[in-house]
């Protein structure tokens, strides 16, 4: 059970916040959600991390408070709900890139109408993020373990749109690629290729079946910013590919067929992740994706024994491609996503 300190008097910041009063939509005595005042962050984090193992919770709270005080966490990324001046609910978001935010599920304690309080937290954060000009909010949940959180998101206005299947494969055994499939020549990322990467990345999203809700939303700089912020960016593993054809004076870069391959270290010690594989419309239907997978496995082989990836289950051609290449599922995630602006 979570313990709470004795009730502190309302702070000036809390009293002055325009949302800090109850309204007709709130359960009795429950105030509207507000950005968490600095002096209440510890309380809010106690609630937010209440499902974490007791042995890990103090370290998680201490780390978050350290990030707050060093400026790595913005104070308004944690929101809380109060009842009679006691923190009873918390929710947190963080930016994935310049246009997209990731939302953690709300946690609520000591409330008879828990579902209403949780939904109110979700709605308040979505409204705030839209006001900030963000374009999309997303969340990932375990479809079996997080059914309460899924209901909270849906009631609060963050719908479930699809399921991601997580797959993995050994990097040690090369896949079989038909001999007739053209080989690919690769160009590593360099800062002077930003515009080229951006243009081609956007073209790979044309008619994409992988989270089409995000099509046109994120450019290369957004993807780059997200990976750099997560500490996962390694330029030599971000590559543009073009098919090699036979013939005199053939220049693979003079044609429109392109493949984008992005790989990064995983949270697992034994695995790397294929974070993105995309083909321009002209490159599709020629077996180039299978060739690119073989090259990705070779590229990461000396760094990890496994390669993981995620695929939208609505993207049946990609699901078939990965299964045929020897990838096997090991988990799933429900995707909640909303475009804001």
TrEMBL record:
<keyword id="KW-0012">Acyltransferase</keyword>
<feature type="compositionally biased region" description="Pro residues">
    <location>
        <begin position="1"/>
        <end position="11"/>
    </location>
</feature>
<dbReference type="InterPro" id="IPR050832">
    <property type="entry name" value="Bact_Acetyltransf"/>
</dbReference>
<feature type="domain" description="N-acetyltransferase">
    <location>
        <begin position="29"/>
        <end position="183"/>
    </location>
</feature>
<dbReference type="InterPro" id="IPR000182">
    <property type="entry name" value="GNAT_dom"/>
</dbReference>
<dbReference type="Pfam" id="PF00583">
    <property type="entry name" value="Acetyltransf_1"/>
</dbReference>
<keyword id="KW-0808">Transferase</keyword>
<protein>
    <submittedName>
        <fullName>GCN5-related N-acetyltransferase</fullName>
    </submittedName>
</protein>
<dbReference type="GO" id="GO:0016747">
    <property type="term" value="F:acyltransferase activity, transferring groups other than amino-acyl groups"/>
</dbReference>
<feature type="region of interest" description="Disordered">
    <location>
        <begin position="1"/>
        <end position="34"/>
    </location>
</feature>
<feature type="domain" description="N-acetyltransferase">
    <location>
        <begin position="204"/>
        <end position="341"/>
    </location>
</feature>
<feature type="compositionally biased region" description="Low complexity">
    <location>
        <begin position="12"/>
        <end position="24"/>
    </location>
</feature>
<dbReference type="InterPro" id="IPR016181">
    <property type="entry name" value="Acyl_CoA_acyltransferase"/>
</dbReference>
